Amino acid sequence: MKKVALVAILMIASLSAKAQSYVGFLTDNYSGVNSVISNPANIADSRFKTDINLIGASGFLANDYVGVGYSDLISSDFDFDRDANLMLTDNNNFSGNVDILGPSFMFNIGKKSSIAIFTRARSFVTGNEFNGESIDDLDDSIDESQDFLVDEGDFFASGHGWAEVGVTYAQELWNKDEHFLKAGLSLKYLKGFGNAYGSGRNVTIDYDADGATLPDNSTIGTLESTGDLIYGRADDYDDDNYDYEVPDANGFGFDLGFVYEWRPNYEDYVVTGADGEKTVMKDKNKYKLKFGLSLTDVGSVNYKAGLVDIYNINNTITQEDYDNIEDSDDLQNLYTFTEATEDLKAGLPTALHFNADWNIKNHFYLNFNTDLSMRSAGENNQRVANVFSLTPRFESKWFSFYLPFSSYQYSGMQIGAGLRAGPLYIGSGSLISTFTRNEIQGADVYAGLKVPVYYGQPKDSDGDGIPNKEDGCPKKAGPIENNGCPWGDTDGDSVLDNEDQCPDEAGPVENNGCPWVDSDGDSILDNEDQCPDEVGPAENNGCPWADSDGDAVLDKDDECPNEMGTVANKGCPEPVVTAEVQKSLNEYAKTILFNTGRSTLKDESTPVLVDIIGILNEYPNANFTIEGHTDSIGSEATNQKLSEKRAQAVLQFLINGGISPSRLTAIGYGESKPIATNMYKDGRQKNRRVEINLAQ
């Protein structure tokens, strides 16, 4: 039995959403103007003065409906029914795309900004949610003897081709120490070349092998179907003479992206010119980690006056009706048909991209990239795949090599390889998988030519980090602060002028090349003067004598320099005459004996007085009074006079013993201050006494 013409065509178109461009190459820091495809921020602070893409093309095809071995595919006797392996599910998909990057270029418009202009032609075929099992049943013919049910439900398929002319502007936003951020925006004018889509809504087909009885009582199969089939296209596709005209289709789109770089060794990439201005090396990758986030292909193309055919297939037809279907006119006779003219909006394959790049060491990198579709399945939407890629690469100015490992949403793991060699870039995200897997479900390839103009390292003949054009001594290494010339030694004191504070006067290293002076004029040079700003004697190392404890006795004369004292006691604190000392003096004084009725001292009193002199010498700053006392025997006048003479006798003995007269006072009290009664002998003896007291 013949295929159902239109139904079969639509249902065989089981589609996926896995189109990718230039897999691996776009992770390269030297991809130049091509890098705006994935993130428009990439061209700011790039390795290029300018980059011109002459032509580049990328093609991709993938599916989860059928797998074919490479050896079978290239065999001259390849047979699809025999060699292909069908993977039938109720949700099969396939996809194809072509992406051509035409003449495009980028250049810098300042130290922080870059601009790119690009041309691009693209075509997508995408779709999803097709029942592969049903497609297989309808592929060749229907077994008229068997009942079957096709429960297709909703499905979508679309194809779109368009051209882009875009302008990209990228700008550094933040460059502070180890942190760097840049952003970019691409604005695109879109010109549609062609668009068509097909979809089904709640489609079911129920075949009953003996559903109808003929007049001769024989039976014939019937097909009971439900749902709607929709076919939309630009009106140029309806030209029966195949005289193609560019449709009236235009639109706009944009891409937006940001890139952050972590530069822990940023100082290694900063160059200071002879004028002191600092610039960052443009020819070097400066990051350890780089993160990119971008949203691409936001927009759509509007096709004016497109055509949309809708078949409502809620009907039951016989096997004979089915066999007689040859074209769309036959379908219109069997099903309810409506046709409308309306504008068709073809949505771009909007996607969110996240990229992380790790500079492992020197020229070796590891890149992680994700592409996430932002478009839902729809009648006229194009969708990219949800893809996760891990790409190790070797990267240098004139050569790079990539080895991408990618996991696609439908076709699974793919391993590819690619390289860039000067103006040529070529590769595939599935190269290794294609030749090593038993079944090929997808393949891609890309190639292109460009004219790169890289930033170069300025010539530095003497290797001092200063370009020759800014170096005052290009053949002799020297510091930037001396215009690239080595430092001299004008005064010949072995201290270079950059460290010599007196470059015209010879001086020692320890004085920064200056001769020693005598700042305070005390005849001691500053290198030997411990107090170069204060006059002081040589014996005190040029410092004035200090009085550390503030007792008016200079430290050099102060026997107690850290303890306040008196001048008389050589800067030490005076001993305190305690009550115990006072008592001891008076105990001694009680033993001073005089000849009876006279003021002369007895000889046995001499040792006592000597001990008293010793005690007084312990308190050199203390003054004492020597008091004479008598009993009441005799006249009061006689006793008064006797007490004074006896006090004077003791005073004179003490003076003769070395006690300063200024410290002593002699007073006679006669019988006026008895300490006992004079009625008895013992009391009178106690009253005849001499006392030595601390002067008040």
Termini separation: 147 Å
Mean pLDDT score, rounded?
84
The tally of helices reads: 11
Overall geometry comes to elongated
- Major beta sheet, specifics? 20 strands, antiparallel
Unreliable stretches covering 5 or more consecutive residues: 1-19
Helix content: 10-25%
Question: How many domains, as an integer?
Answer: 2
Instruction: Give the class from helix and strand content and strand pairing.
Output: mainly beta
| Strand count | 27
CA-atom Rg in angstroms:
57 Å
Strand content: 35-45%
Explain the layout of strands and helices:
Elements: H1 5-12, E1 48-63, E2 66-67, H2 70-73, H3 80-83, E3 85-86, E4 94-101, E5 104-108, E6 113-128, H4 132-139, E7 148-176, E8 179-213, E9 219-233, E10 249-262, E11 270-272, E12 278-280, E13 289-312, E14 315-318, H5 319-323, H6 328-334, E15 336-347, E16 351-361, E17 364-373, E18 387-395, E19 399-402, E20 405-408, E21 412-415, E22 417-421, E23 424-428, H7 431-436, E24 442-454, H8 579-589, H9 606-617, E25 624-629, H10 636-656, E26 664-668, H11 681-687, E27 689-694
Parallel strand pairs: 25-26
Antiparallel strand pairs: 1-4, 1-5, 1-24, 2-3, 4-6, 5-6, 6-7, 7-8, 8-9, 8-10, 9-13, 9-14, 10-13, 11-12, 13-15, 13-16, 16-17, 17-18, 18-19, 18-20, 19-22, 20-21, 22-23, 23-24, 25-27
Helix pairs in contact: 8-9
Describe the model.
There is one protein chain. The chain has 2 domains: 5-454; 579-694, 60s Ribosomal Protein L30, Chain: A. Helix content is 13%, strand content 39%. The chain has 11 helices and 27 strands. It starts with a helix and ends with a strand.
